[in-house]
Design goal:
It contains 4 helices and 12 strands, in the order βββββααβαβαβββββ. It is of the alpha/beta class. The longest helix has 26 residues. The radius of gyration is 26 Å and the shape is flat. The protein starts with 9 loop residues before the first strand and ends with a strand.
Length: 306
């Protein structure tokens, strides 16, 4: 890795003179303590040993046909070849440089915290990239998946030419729309038109819908009504509040065991430190390589909300 710091992007004593002076009562570094990763609660995390990963989708067998006579031939089927899903790993890197004098004379341990924040910035990049699959899940984004449709669409083509697949729910999150989305997931069919029998077990919402989501899924009585009806959704779905979702009222349900949102690590974050003896600058840098996407739209149903 070649790192070339310049006077413009190197932290030096004249820029950070306050850190060299005794008597400061406190120094606030604008970063936060570590928080748990979120993307790995939605994506299947995989390791790649090649520059790209190609997954080949396959069709499915049609239902068996009746064999009326014992001398009838077996009806053999041929599964059609499906569409390819290609994951191409991108590389990301960043770093910072510290002048030797500043490193030697700084009194408050701020420089020692910079590598930690560099790591956090890298993880923030991972989170925002991964969630973009869901932030761009609808037609308005113009982003499509392997079959030429948005992730959530009512027009996913089937390999056998049958009725298009539909994983697009409608309406703001409510008791009615959530139940409709669950029913829609249960109606999803495979490439040959057989029921795939997906079962929603996770409700994914942005922070603005957290409390409503909990009311819908945890209340013992039906929310929003004075009647004493039981809440048939109670305990059925776990709620995952994804802080990185950007649409304040879009929401999703997922079969977490069978959904195929994939995140491939080619190189997990790695860090390097070196010193330039020609200008006495210490350099810190990190790099990582990964790719992400969905290998099948089935197992996910989403609504753009209101």
């Amino acid at each position: 890795m070649t790192m070339t710091p310049t006077a413009v992007n190197t932290h030096i004593s004249t820029d950070w003179s306050d850190l060299l002076l005794p008597g400061l009562s406190s120094v606030f570094y604008n970063t936060l303590d570590e928080s748990p990763a979120q993307f790995d609660k939605i994506f299947k995390i995989k390791k790649s040993t090649t520059s790209t990963v190609t997954e080949l989708g396959m069709g499915a067998f049609s239902p068996w046909t009746e064999r009326v006579n014992e001398t009838d031939n077996v009806a053999f089927q041929k599964i059609p070849k499906g569409l390819e899903r290609t994951y191409t790993h991108s590389e990301f890197a960043s770093g910072f440089a510290i002048g030797k004098r500043l490193y030697e004379d700084e009194l408050y341990g701020i420089i020692a915290k910079m590598p930690e924040d560099l790591a956090r910035a890298g993880r923030s990049k991972v989170e925002t990239d991964a969630v973009s699959v869901f932030n761009n899940a609808f037609a308005a984004s113009g982003v499509t998946i392997y079959d030429g449709q948005p992730l959530c669409s009512a027009a996913h083509p089937r390999l056998d030419g049958g009725t298009a697949g539909d994983n697009l729910a409608t309406g703001a999150l409510s008791d009615t729309t959530l139940k409709a989305a669950i029913n829609k997931m249960r109606a999803i069919k495979d490439e040959a038109g057989k029921l795939a029998v997906f079962t929603a077990d996770t409700l994914i919402v942005p922070p603005g819908l957290e409390w409503l989501a909990l009311e819908l899924t945890k209340s013992t009585q039906k929310p929003g009504t004075a009647d004493n009806d039981i809440n048939t959704l109670s305990g059925r779905l776990k709620v995952f509040v994804w802080d990185y979702l950007t649409d304040s009222d879009a929401w999703f349900i997922m079969d977490s065991k069978r959904a195929m949102a994939s995140f491939y690590w080619r190189v997990r974050p790695e860090f390097a430190k070196s010193n330039d003896s020609d200008n006495w600058v210490a350099k810190y840098a990190g790099r990582m390589r990964y790719s992400y996407g969905v290998s099948d739209w089935r197992g996910i149903v989403g609504s753009v909300g209101a």
